[in-house]
Amino acid sequence: MAKSAWKVQFLGAARQVTGSCYLLYTEGFRLLIDCGMYQERKLLARNWESFPVPPESIDVLLLTHAHLDHCGLIPKLVKEGFRGRIVSTAASRDLAHIVLHDSARIQEEDAAFKKRRHEREGRKGPYPVVPLYTPQDVREAMPRFDTVGYGETVELSDDLTASFHDAGHILGSAMIELRTSVNGEDRTLVFSGDIGQPGRPLVRDPVRFREADYVVMESTYGNRRHEDAGDVEDQLAAVINDTVQRGGNVLIPTFAVERAQELMYTLGQLVGADRIPHVMAFLDSPMAIEVTDVFRRHRHELNEDVQDVAESGGRLFRFPRMHLVESVEESKAINRIRGSCIILAGSGMCTAGRIKHHLVNNITRGESTIVFVGYQAQGTLGRRIVDGERVVRILGADYPVVAKVAQIHGLSGHADQRGLLNWLKDLVRPPRRVFLTHGEATAAEELASRLRARRDWRVEVPAYRQEFDLD
């Protein structure tokens, strides 16, 4: 008797950027690809909803990479009953350990703050104020991880295998290639994860595929092209030299995973070449410091240029006058420094963390510069500053934006529209269907229109919870 055809259901990142989660299933087997947290303000309530299918019914979870919007609900899934294995690269497992513990800490702090506020205001909500998950939930989830190297094949069921390929997005990131049988015919499904852009400072270029019957592909920049503002080192050097000349601080909201390490590496190259003043620089993020240790342990997965620096005795992420800041007291002391300095602090979209305190001390200073080096999601403080709002609210108070605002292009972890189209070029025949996810609806729809017009491909932009037969 022939096995039932496979189906794919889109349980997240469907016409929005975050919450990546896809269910591939057939009679007797359920596979989840990613289990990400929603980060858009209008969708936060989804994080608290019961999982769309019983977690105990899921056999295996494959993780593309360790960003929170791809792995952030794993502890909740385990807490609700998932007992299968989680397969990822070793670097993704090590990064997920840090990212999820940090998320659990924030969940507990937020719950405690809301509880105190409700008690102070005499409010009683319909539900108790509790964290989404706790550090203990993370500890119970981590032993479920199994690791796999790039190019290795993992057997998931009698007729389903998976292999992981370098996505060039962050350390350990992977595209997942699934091989199975549909009604007696071999089929290949590729889940792109987040596709990096070529020529990044640390990671390798993303792998391309020659064949795929079905492609589930991200579309974050499906309607945009990265501005060609020149070499990243040139852009960063120009901003730093201009700001130091004005007597201000360079403040860079920094993502702890990948972006912090790229910036430290690039700053080290600039200092070593005497292209910028040797001012003090601070990485003010305990999480980013932990992540940097993971990069050192997995440096064999970085690109050849970085490995050459390491093998020649160079220090990848440290240079003279670079300070790693862990304690709150050290962080506060930065604001007492006279003269210019460079401050890298989380979070990258200014939604939480120490960056908010540094913004309070610098956003009203015309001599300082706030430098954005990554995507700023709609509704975030970072997006409001980038979009030119004159006054923004930080830590409960309003501040006029007087500091200079700059953007460094070329460090984005996502391929732009041109890169996404190029990533598909090596396919020797058209896929049966392409599904565009992980992008705002306008971005996904424009990319879909281009693919339909240029290549006459069958392209879908799935809605939340929509499912398709792979027949």
Structural commentary:
With 471 residues, the protein is α/β, with parallel strands linked by helices. It folds into 2 domains: 6-224 and 413-470, Metallo-beta-lactamase, Chain A (4-Layer Sandwich), CATH 3.60.15; 232-407, Rossmann fold. Helix content is 30%, strand content 23%. The protein has helices at 68-71, 74-79, 90-121, 135-141, 232-246, 259-272, 286-297, 304-311, 328-334, 355-362, 381-386, 417-423, 441-455; strands spanning 6-12, 21-26, 29-33, 60-62, 85-88, 145-147, 153-157, 160-166, 174-182, 185-191, 214-218, 250-253, 280-284, 322-325, 341-345, 369-372, 391-394, 397-400, 404-407, 433-437, 459-460, 467-470. A 7-stranded mixed sheet has the order 6-5-4-3-2-1-22. Strands 7-8-9-10-11-20-21 form a 7-stranded mixed sheet, with helices on one face. Strands 14-13-15-12-16-19 form a 6-stranded parallel sheet, with helices on both faces. The two termini are 16 Å apart. The relative contact order is 0.14.
Number of domains: 2
Which ranges are low-confidence, i.e. pLDDT below 50, for 5 or more consecutive residues?
Answer: none
The number of distinct helices, counting runs of at least 4 residues, comes to 13
CATH second-level architecture of the largest domain: 4-Layer Sandwich
Q: Strand order within the widest sheet?
A: 6-5-4-3-2-1-22
Largest sheet: 7 strands, mixed
